[in-house]
Amino acid sequence: MAFGPYFLLATLEGLVTAAVLSLMALGLSLVFGVMRVVNVAHGEFYMLGAVLAWWFSSLVGGHPAVGFLLALVLSPLVVAAIAFVAERLVLSRLNYEPEATIVATIGLLYIIQQLALTFYGPEARPVEAPFNHRISLPWFGYSAYKLSVIGFSILMMLATWVLLTRTKIGLVMRATQFDRETAQAFGIPVGRVYAGVFALGAGLAAVAAVLIVPIQQAHYLMGLDPLLLSFIVVIIGGLGSLRGTVVAAVLIGLSDGIISMFFSPTLAKMLATLIVAMVLVFRPQGLFGAPAR
Amino acid sequence: MTRLSPSAKSIALHVGVVLLLLALNVLLPEYHRGVLARVLVLAVFAMGYNLAFGYTGLLSLGHAMFFAAGLYGAGLTVYHLEWSVWPAFATGLVAGTALALVVGFLALRTTGVAFMIVTLMFAQVFYLTTLYFTTYTRGEEGLVLPQAARVLAFPGGVLNLSDPSTRYLVALALFALVLAVTLFLARAPFGRSLVAIRENEERMRMLGYDVFANKLASVVLSGLVCAAAGAAYAVLFGYVGSGFAAIQYSILPLLWVLVGGAATTLGPLIGTLFMFYVIDTASSYTTAHLLVVGLVLIGVILFFPKGIAGTVRERWLPWLP
Amino acid sequence: MAAVSPLLVTRDLCRAFGGLRAVDGVDFSLPEGETHAIIGPNGAGKTTFVSLICGRITPTSGSVVFDGREVSRMPAHRRVRAGIAYTFQITSVFANLTAFDNVALAVQRQLIDARAGGRTAHALAEHGMEALDKVGLAGHADKIAGNLSYGHQRLLEVAMGLALKPRLLILDEPTQGLSDGEIDNFIGLVRQIGEEATVLLIEHNMDVVMALAERITVMEQGRILAQGAPAEIRANEAVQQAYLGG
After folding, report:
1. Is C76 on the interface with B (CB under 8 A)?
2. What's residue C1's pLDDT?
3. Residue A16: strand, helix, or coil
């Protein structure tokens, strides 16, 4: 095969990564944007989503699509509920002090990881894709499921965008983000809004995970890499910018796909991480953000 | 009993702690002496972390790279170049210090959350590097240093570092040295400046302090101490592996310092010792020791944000350094 | 030394934030030993102007010359060591440290630079208490700064500035939020300081300005509107229209 097919394949794989990454990074960005909390446990919510997806889909027999759809609905809900409880029990009592919440979410990370290891085990398990159709491209056939992941992610992003900009819930969230005290004075239940945002963020990570498990298997350690990538996306995209998040996710997803096609994965990760660290050092406001005053 | 001045009291306390640890060398059963030797070395790691996090207020999630730089600096030279322990140890120190200088110079351009993420990323790059050069490091599996190489030559003879008692005493010597340095620093103008920078950076700048230089000095010193712990770990316990560069080893010193008490001299030791035995005890009931780590982290930050020594200082002993 | 050059000179000093020219071509000169007040409506650029002098903000263009040296590109901490001290408009003490430790940090810096008397605990205590004594806080030395009353915290700010032994002390709205009695004490304090150092004062309270200033600069929209002795400023029509509301 010539260069072209490789490149097309790398681009497609990169877009799939980008799609899933956008969802996950959006969750992280929402939580940081509204609550100013760096959720280090975000990757574990993703992992939990994947593990629960395996569990739900294994509950029902019949066509794989049934199990998958069940997982797609239930897994994010359960993860969101867990996040909601964690926020009420822990984060809210820390008064959202940045360092304390970082430490607390690290604690959460370990707890979730250990529970997954204890109850789910160290194995990596797949979830069967809802359909196995392959679409013929000029050089090779490509999984229709992977393409539908891209489509579904776009739908989810649009839904979130509508939620944020066109509904009362979104208005309340933005008001809280803008000025917590004033929002409180206007009778907005800030505590519940925060818990809701935290749950929504975790739920988005879980959706991303359910979409990915037919492609990658569910494993209790799968959360760290996507967590780092989401940090990267959120930083490069600029905080609180939905568009920036998407653009950065596509950028990172594509370059990840293309770099790992031509370098060893370890070297690719090394280079990518180093480059992003440098971006953060020299342009802390992100590539698309305006410099802070 | 005569009344001692605060500084006399604190010096007496620290000397007492070191003497107690010295006595434990002969008092403790073999197993616990082994554990304590390891705890002492890791407490040095925590003390190094405490300089940056506790005193200067720099929340780094990348200190594993400084520990690992010391570990690999000493371990690889012993294993591949067959260097003796002294120059290998020195190589570890130089590696960690140089890395801290470069990382500090870059990462300190950022503050707060960005600093945390940047240090996390640099540490991740370091970790991946140890995996990438797996031909030399053997990655996660790691290298075991031959016992014959782990001897410390003195003009008067040699110390065999794989002997449990010698190992314990060498670990204690390093610990005591770093403890003395921390105690000295906490009372010196430099230490006071670091605390003040943590409290109010802009005010310090307008009092004429070069905040960046002070922070950089803190990171470099912190990196040096962490590297010393890493290099000591390599030659004392004879094992060098990528696991020590992984993110978990950046989080552990944070945990130890928080539990023991940030910006206290004895907090790192207390925290490391406490967590070691909590996990040790938990391990005999369950394999889920990470759960314990997670619960303790959340419990401490919720109920004892000042840690053990910090709470003691606040409630009972205001002179505790 | 006859015809001494001024301690501080700014030439065509500008600072823009986005499109807004907060300080716009200011030429200013301050002789050694003078107590000088800057007045003007809110948003006139007073704080930005003194921030350019002490180095908290870098200028867009123009120069700041302090004691014959061009300092406009010098980082703030080095300007402090050169002798420019700034007290914050919004009280900015080390809230968790004692009043003495707050001042000691300033003394420590000064002692390191002066290399005089060593950095001994004795010198630290002596100079620190001296500065606290000047502002009348000697009795509160061991109190945690955050627990002091607001007025005392403002005085502590000034004590920290004094402990630096500055040649130019910049006071940014020092009497804001003080009671009348406290203000009277404060006027006495600044008079005393003015005998040893050059003082640049931003102030809204005209009684304080008239009591203290030897000369006054009026700023409006980033520019100097008028400059002169208190009586001249009081008589100046433009100033009355723009600011004094006359």
Report:
1. yes
2. 41
3. helix
- Sketch the domain layout of chain B as residue ranges: 9-245
Check if the beta carbon of residue B99 is closer than 8 Å to that of residue B65: yes
Q: Read off the pLDDT of each residue in B94-107 and give the average, rounded to a whole number.
A: 97
Residues from chain B that touch C94, judged by Cβ atoms under 8 A, are 196, 199-200, 203
In a domain, A248, yes or no: no
Instruction: Residue count of chain B, please give it.
Output: 321
Domains and CATH numbers, chain C: 84-165 (3.40.50.300)
Q: Write the pLDDT tens digit of every residue in C38-92.
A: 998 888 889 999 999 999 989 999 999 999 899 988 999 999 999 999 988 777 8
Nearest-by-CA chain C residue for B203: C92
* Tens digit of each residue's pLDDT (9 = 90 or more) over C143-194: 999 999 888 898 899 899 988 889 999 999 888 888 888 888 889 889 988 8
CA distance C188 to C178: 14
Q: What is the mean pLDDT of residues B51-61?
A: 94
Number of domains chain A contains = 1
State how beta strands C198-202 and C35-39 pair: parallel
- For the whole model, what pTM was predicted? 0.87
Nearest CA in chain B to A265: B132
Nearest CA in chain B to A283: B110
Report chain A residues whose CB lies below 8 A from the CB of B112. 98
Q: Are C218 and C205 in contact (CB under 8 A)?
A: no
**Could you tell me which residues come within 8 angstroms of residue C164 by beta carbon, excluding any fewer than 6 positions away?**
B207, B208, C80, C85, C106, C109, C110
